[in-house]
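To fix ideas, we close by showing one paired sequence and structure record:
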Amino acid sequence: WDSAMTCFCNTIKAHIEAYRLVHRIYREQKWDTPTVTVNTWGSASYGMDKFIQDLLMARENGIAHPGIHGYLVEQRDRFNALMGTIPYSNGPQFIKRRVDTFVEKGFWKRITPKHMHDLCDLVYQGDEAVLTDVIGFDLYDPFLGNNLDLGKPRLFGIRMKPYQWHVNPGALEPLVAAYSWTSKGKPLHVLENGMCYRSKGSQVWP
């Protein structure tokens, strides 16, 4: 968990540095303005997805540095309430919801004050408030819990391989709504959706 969280935060820092560098180079070369964004999974876990958008766009949304933690908590609670209205595709709803709750709580337990301090300091460095040009995300199934199968053909199974994952088109509308809350009217781009695989009944393979 600790190593994963450090990697997660370093990836966000790398995006911020790359965004500023790419835009500076384009300005200096007098090229057309580039489009730079992140490509998140489209997850029902706030910490694994929309947290990134809200962090990167906090300055654009008028949030001062001292108020960013409270702002992120407010957005998290709003996002989680909306995700709680989307039913799971099949199986025991309560158990699957507990899986996603566990992951979400794990994120907030493991992101340390130092992680947050370093991220926020970098966001608020310099004069440029903009750190993403569009909102980009993938749409498969936002719920980790839907990759847990209980019952036949065996008591317990996890959908580990990408070609086994569910697709959840019903999640598109609520996810778009959530991304729009803090998007400042920026375009929303679905960057990935679906996969080509062979299937026969419930059996699929690459």
In short: The longest helix spans residues 2-29. The longest strand covers residues 188-193. Strands lie at 135-139, 148-150, 156-158, 188-193, 198-200, 203-205. The chain has a mean pLDDT of 90.
